[in-house]
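Annex B. Sample input.
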Amino acid sequence: MRGIQVHETGGPEVLEYVELAEPELSDGSVLVAVAAAGLNYIDTYQRNGLYPMQMPITLGMEGSGTVEGVAEGVDSVSVGDRVAWCSVAGSYADRTVAPASALVKVPDGVPFEAAAAVMLQGLTAHYLATDTFTLAPGDRCLVHAGAGGVGLLLIQIAKLLGAEVFTTVSTSEKADLAKGAGADHVIRYDETDFADAVLAIGGERPLDVIYDGVGADTFDRGLGLLRQRGMMALFGQASGPVPPVDLQVLAQNGSLFVTRPSLFHYIGERHELESRSADLFGWIAAGELDVRIGQTWPLPEAADAHRALEARRTTGKTLLIP
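Annex B, continued. Sample output.
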């Protein structure tokens, strides 16, 4: 068995493709042959030390594959089942051991690659649009990084819910992707100030909610775009963490709400994980949700994949294939 391991924090160069100990089943666990592992920013945060971890670690939280073995007492899945997950450490490997409670079954009509691609990012887009700020017809939202993995899915889900979608991108290729996902207003932030562009299109404080996975570069300017009692949903920090916020600024901008949600607080109950993944798989099977897999890398080349993600040279979802 081989996988990607990190022995010390640092840049992509610390990712090592190494022999790993054969996984052993324990109570309530399942052995899965990994078909595809998803690449996510959380992997880079664990690698570079932003999220401290006990070393060494095998990276990867998300993937899909086929059940090869089950521990005694596990009856929710069987050998041969197609499954996916989003909270199982060690997914950058040929095989992984996962708690049965973390797995969801993948319908036959959903490819392994699509299943792996929508677990962390798809479930994130789902909870943001349906719970953190529940979009309804006529709502106006801004999705930053609209051509990214979460962005393309969030745009589509927002449109399914009837919202008007503003989004930001950095290249003409990414603009085309965001338009193809259904965005109503695509803003090239490399060419213009995104806040000025939103105001020019929508008028004064036009937004009900901003879904911000960028962080430091966009947070402050975004507050001035929200209506009274609008919401800033900060779910990531691709450009760096947001500095401490003076809460009085929220009052001055119209009694705003700011939240820093985490996926794992929205799928903590088994029924939430099942219902959200069932929605996603159902939309995929029905052709209502297009999962764009922008690029794949062989697992041994995980360092190159990390470099591309951090340089914002990726679109849609990036997968690592064992």
